[in-house]
Amino acid sequence: MWTKAGVGVLGLVLLAVLLFLALPPVGPQAGAAGPAQPIAFSHKLHAGQYRIDCQYCHSDARRSEYAGLPSVTRCMGCHKITAADTPEIKKLAEYLAKQEPIPWVRIYKVPEYVYFPHKPHVRAGVACQTCHGPVQTMDVVGAKTGQNLANDLLNLVGLAWTSTPLTMGWCVECHTARKATLECTTCHH
Ligand code: HEC
Ligand code: HEC
Ligand code: HEC
Ligand code: HEC
Ligand code: HEC
Question: What percent helix, strand, coil does the chain show, rounded to 5?
């Protein structure tokens, strides 16, 4: 008798957990481990849903050390019209009017004594996602996962992607596998 009731209760608890996880986020930061950004910019929307190419916005990646962030002008190329009357896009327009860059919070950073250039990696065909994870599923970069049921379930069973630690061991492991340089002075100079 009580076994049946036990399963029933367990079933209900599981259902409640699943429903809770499946609820839409209450705000751009909901459930995320990433930092609060000055504008609620979503990669899941832009790079995921609308499939805008990573390098359309991070256009320095293939030609310099840095990947770079898009200027306000680049955002406004679309947002002069798209969603122009929403609060977040009005904030964007204010930065443009003040001629000020958006103070985005930096996420990935190696120590000063390390030289990490994007260019050779992009040219060797290493995908952005190999190092930064499935950014196109993230509302907030640096969050462990994007907010959807599949990611939450993966997270529950411990299979979700977690941010790469950017350690020397991580660099060296891939350089060994890809027969890239292991010279100390290439990464430290
Ligand atoms: C429409 C423009 C746009 C597109 C497309 C875009 N990004 Fe971004 N990206 C941004 C902006 C703005 C930021 C800064 C705010 C933030 O962190 O969300 C950013 C931040 C990042 C960061 C964190 C930078 C840091 O501070 O360390 C990474 C990594 C990144 N993007 C990778 C990608 C990848 C990979 C893609 C393609 C799957 C992509 N981005 C597509 C605009 C874009
Ligand atoms: C290639 C076109 C394009 C570019 C470039 C672009 N966006 Fe968007 N953005 C969109 C589209 C499309 C939507 C969805 C609008 C909607 O749902 O009505 C959107 C939505 C948004 C929203 C949500 C607006 C709301 O409904 O509250 C924000 C915030 C945003 N973008 C910020 C940015 C920022 C910041 C940049 C520059 C880093 C940027 N976008 C660059 C096309 C673009
Ligand atoms: C081999 C690993 C690797 C690949 C591939 C890679 N990145 Fe990065 N990315 C890093 C590391 C490491 C940093 C921190 C660099 C630093 O602190 O100087 C970083 C920093 C960034 C930043 C913030 C600082 C900056 O350079 O502007 C952005 C944005 C970014 N990456 C986007 C991208 C995009 C977009 C791609 C694909 C076109 C990409 N990355 C490919 C490892 C990688
Ligand atoms: C996922 C694989 C991968 C990871 C992770 C990775 N690299 Fe690389 N790296 C490569 C490949 C592939 C090349 C290009 C080799 C070539 O062109 O022969 C490269 C090239 C380089 C170069 C240029 C070497 C030269 O001869 O000019 C530097 C510097 C570098 N990586 C530094 C780093 C640092 C620092 C890290 C960690 C923060 C890192 N890499 C992480 C794959 C990786
Ligand atoms: C492919 C890139 C790469 C190569 C090659 C490399 N390093 Fe590093 N090294 C890093 C990165 C990234 C860090 C910073 C992250 C960390 O401390 O793990 C680092 C950190 C260090 C540190 C500081 C560690 C600490 O705990 O403060 C020392 C010392 C160091 N490296 C020495 C070397 C020596 C010696 C060699 C050659 C045998 C070498 N590295 C080759 C990427 C590299």
Answer: 45, 0, 50
